[in-house]
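COMPLEX REQUEST
Ligand: zinc ion
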Amino acid sequence: MSLKDKTRREEYRKQYYLKNKEHIIAQHREYNAKNKERFKERNQIRSKKYYLENKEQLDAKNKLWHEQHKEQCKKYYKRHHQKNKEKRNMFSKEYGKNWRQENKEYIKAYSEQQKEYIKKRTRIYQITHKKEVNARNQTWSKTDKGKLSTLKRTELRRAKQLQAPGIFSIQEWKDLKKKFDFSCPACGRSEPEIKLSIDHIIPLTKGGSNDISNLQPLCSSCNSRKRDYARMWNPKGQMEIIFQGGIKK
Ligand SMILES: [Zn+2]
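STATUS: Structure written out below.
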């Protein structure tokens, strides 16, 4: 092909393009839209390259646009933030959980090493964030886990005051309730109609221990009716031992 032909052909192409510009662009657009997925990766690379080549110019343009559309942007960010709140919370929760799982040893060593500091920091946080801490504690104490923990703490405090021996775990108490089919063996009523409380078969005041073997679940009215008597029920509701008149310490 001679140079003259080449130039003529190029000129013809140019003319054709200018004449049919809109149609050609529309066709390209349609083709690109149809093959969006296919071109995704390629386009990403291209855009990145283009951006890097024209960084300063594009950054300035972007900055200007943002300044001109400040309110609009603010609204958008706010909406986006709200919309993805749950997603974000879930992600950070999951991330934290994984991190703690993977760094168990490190956390243990760190807490041991920084014991005094952590104690101090927690105390300061509790004082400066009283409202939040109280609200969180209140919410937690309403959950099943929180309720059990409160129950255990109360019992342990009482046991400590009475210098009673023995200790029970929350799991042991849960298992015991299950063994009694979540029912009060003295009156036969079940949760949630009643609320099972911890009863010491031999009362703490009479030298009973805080060990799980000395515990039975009773509803609060049966518990208070029992007073200081040492009475024990089996899961079938039969009273097994009765110490008449209570125990003298
Ligand atoms: Zn009862």
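REMARKS: The chain has a mean pLDDT of 87. The first strand starts at residue 196 and ends at 200.
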